[in-house]
Amino acid sequence: MKRLLINKIVLALSTISAIIGLSFLAWILITLFIKGLSSFHFSLFVTDLINNGLRNLIIGQFILAGFASIIGIPLGMIAGIYIREYGRGRYANLIRNLSDIMMSAPSIVIGAFVYAIIVVPTGHTSGFAGSIALAIMMIPIVISTTDSMLSLVPKELREAGIALGASKYRVILDIVIKAAKVGIMTGILLAFARIVGETAPLLFTSQTSNYFSLDMTHAFPSLSVSIYDLASDVQTSSRDLAWAASFILTAMVLIINLTGKFITRNKK
Fold first, then answer.
1. Does residue 267 surpass a pLDDT of 60?
2. What is the CB-side half-sphere exposure of residue 152 using CA atoms within 13 A?
3. Is 131 domain-assigned?
4. What domain count does the chain have?
């Protein structure tokens, strides 16, 4: 009787907590949808911020995240493969633990670190510094995903490949990674969705620009940083533009996340 009572109390508290959390989430999304959609118009995609558009910011945000992915994905996958397939004992556990710590590190701390090692020596912010900060955030997520997905591949597949005379690296490339590619790809998409909406590291490293630019050696257009700047502006038109930009950024992140879920569900 006592156990049933405790079970009902815990279940009720869990349900109430879930409802409260979902209510706040719904409140945020509904407010964002209403205010963002009221300020949304398709001319935002064909004009730059200097002309009250968002084209340069959207393109700049994807360039920053794309360059970060070029750095972060290979490094993260190589480290994840080493941990699972080659690492043994304390060294593998050390890398795994450091990766877990980096995943929980505040993004603003990473931004401050990149600011100290790149922005201060060069004397100015740049798109490269922003991408490096995002790559540092991306690497531990890719490491953890790769490590976890490779651990799910049955060892019998590895033994079968070795029994056929294949070298270890060929077994990893041709059998193990192919067997885990869906989970790894999903993790990469989720990591990309994480960094594409980041603001704090870019405030220190790349800042933003009102003009279209492909020069990553100077301040670079960023949608997330511009949202911060526009929302702090006293003009109503700037705040409306911030709502529209927030709506677009949220939609982008949501689409990337749903794509990852869709790929996983279909392959299963």
1. no
2. 13
3. yes
4. 1
